[in-house]
Amino acid sequence: MTLAFLLCLCVLLVVAALGAPIAHAILIASLAYLAAAGQSIGVAGKVLVDGLYQSYILLAVPLFIVASNIMNAGTISDRLLRFCVALVGRFRGGLGHVNVVASLIFSGMSGSAVADAAGIGKLIIEMMVKSGHYTRGYAAAITAASATIGPIIPPSIPMVLYALVSNSSIGFLFLGGILPGVLMGVVLMAMNGFIAHRRGFGLEAPVPAHELPRLTLDAGPALLMPAILLYGIYGGITTPTEAAAIAAFYALILAAVFYRALSLRAFVDILVTSARSSAAVGLVIGGALILNYVVASENIPDLVADWLVKLDVSPLMFLLGVNLLLLILGCLLDASTIILVIIPLFLPTCRELGVDLVHFGVVAVVNTMIGLITPPYGMLLFVINAVTRIPLAEMIREIWPFLLVLVAALLLLILFPGITLWLPRAFGYPG
């Protein structure tokens, strides 16, 4: 490890500690390394431009962001919620179950935990609090926990980023996320049911069974979006990037023409908001591309791989150790930074130990999603606090049971790779 790289790490830690956005800290630290190593600052520009032009799949990120923002607009979220209430609202803890099922459905449209929490999550929190059966903190906590499912079930922005750094198939990653996402939903609903019976939450008025077909038809076009997306990719009709464009176009037609719930002014606002969100992700990606060049120049991934292989670490112990580290880092860093900067350090070790990269990627994304609700810096907690004004202390007090069952689900995914790999293998994955 050279003096220039030590300077890079020190600058990164100091700038981040001063409160600068992590993307800015990464960029400044990387430039400090280039200067200290006697390399031209122009190298940063070349690495950035080359990385972006060689990564066609990155175009899927802004397109999925646009699609999720359109689906959040107008009456689409309301229709999906009414369908979920009719489906599972009649059971004890019903609106908590609705919260999880809505996230499972909406995750097939957004690919973003933040979009889930800020959009449909805000609506369901208002419903839960208004019912009088749930405290504000509980409603916010289960909303944050269920929003973590969003980037696991396809489409998934974090999995697109993982595919970028690992050269894994985005199609098989999407397939690998389906069963883990369902598992996360099951454990959250089980915990919600347990708490509901223990605390004696009141029952909601059941929606008559004869209303279910009408509500299903009403939400049907929105429910078709994940199916269209997956059929396009796995039917060999579109690439993942083209599928993202189709998803955005379908969401636009659905909101503007079919449901007539999107005005021109609202559409312009959506494009502006999506551009800002895409730019924020783009800054992290750009900084990570330059920092990854720095890390590769120092040969850090190969050094880590050699060190771990010499320790004679088994694949299972490697996975457990890495996931423990990621859980700790998830308390401090956002998911994009972990996927783009930290995960690449362990990919050579995965190859050396024979760890399947699709399994590793899905498990890593699940891990980083758990980090989004882990105090003290869980991003989803801050997002919900910003959109609902529910105090963080109330959310943190209620989040622990849901955090516990999500970590248990993560452990199951680590111990039983077949949960992740069964669907990819069924579609021809050789791993």
- Kindly report the average pLDDT value: 83
**Biggest beta sheet attributes:** none
Q: Label the structural class.
A: mainly alpha
Inertia-based shape: globular
The total domain count is 1
Bin the strand percentage.
under 5%
Oligomer: single chain
Backbone CA Rg: 22 Å
SSE order, one letter for each helix or strand: HHHHHHHHHHHHHHHHHHHHHH
Q: Please report the distance between the alpha carbons of the first and last residues.
A: 35 Å
Helix content: over 70%
- Total strand count, please? 0
**Low-confidence residue ranges:** none
Helix count equals 22
Structure description:
Helices cover 77% and strands 0% of the residues. It has 431 residues and is mainly α. Helix 2 (22-36) runs parallel beside helix 14 (264-297) and helix 10 (157-166) runs parallel beside helix 17 (335-342). The two termini are 35 Å apart. The model has no long low-confidence stretch (mean pLDDT 83).
